[in-house]
Write a structure and sequence with these properties.
Helices cover about 60% and strands about 0% of the residues. It has about 140 residues and is mainly α.
């Protein structure tokens, strides 16, 4: 995807108008572009996920930095990967007493996407987590 294409995508604010499957761009270059480009919010998660499985280790590492401005989108992108590494880091975020509630909610929503409903409900019960935490977000 060229800068011109990114600008076109940003102008039209639509996922369908954007081809996120850039050929020849590495996962780290994709992550750099994510940080440096002001694309519409609706395009951020699909842009990361379009990088494929090579993105997962970078996302897992990056999401642990609590100071990132676009961290919520990294958490959302992790919810698109059915992988134990994603479940592990999302669980840590959801259970962390240091995390703000809306970040915990993002992690729970991503976990819910990865897990089947029964497993998710059992996990919430086992943790004693407040699943109502997301009601206000």
């Amino acid at each position: 995807m060229t800068w011109k294409h990114i600008l076109i995508c940003a102008t039209f604010w639509t996922i369908s108008a954007c081809d996120h499957s850039e050929k020849g761009i590495s996962a780290s270059e994709r992550l750099d572009t994510f940080y440096e480009t002001d694309m519409p919010e609706s395009n951020l998660i699909p842009y990361l996920v379009a990088g494929g499985p090579e993105m997962l280790p970078l996302l897992v590492k990056a999401v642990q930095n609590t100071e990132l401005k676009k961290r919520r989108y990294l958490i959302g992108a992790l919810g698109e990967f059915i992988d134990d590494r994603a479940v592990s880091v999302l669980s840590q975020i959801a259970l962390s007493p240091e995390e703000v509630d809306y970040i915990k909610c993002d992690a729970l929503q991503s976990l819910k996407k990865i897990m089947n409903k029964q497993s998710f409900d059992e996990m919430i019960e086992l943790w004693g987590a407040n699943s109502k935490i997301c009601d206000q977000y």
